[in-house]
Design goal:
It contains no helices and three strands. The relative contact order is 0.21.
Length: 73
């Protein structure tokens, strides 16, 4: 889809909230052939889909990076 909201209500009732964000849903970006779906991660800041690099950092609120799922080329 062009945006996550395009999925509602036909595919899902409502968009899930990002548990790490102060408010709002998961982030989603799409270009002509790729997409990325991500959470702002433990620092609650949008790091523009830059992934957390250390596996153990997921619980460290001071670490920069987002929890990224999707395709980035």
């Amino acid at each position: 889809p062009a945006t996550l909201s395009d999925l509602t209500p036909e595919y899902i009732k409502k968009l899930p909230q990002d548990p790490f964000a102060k408010s709002g849903t998961y982030r989603y970006k799409k270009n002509s052939s790729d997409y990325v779906l991500y959470s702002v991660g433990p620092n609650s800041k949008d790091d523009n889909a830059s992934p957390i690099l250390r596996q153990t950092a997921i619980q460290d609120k001071d670490i920069n990076g987002d929890i990224v799922a999707g395709v980035i080329n």
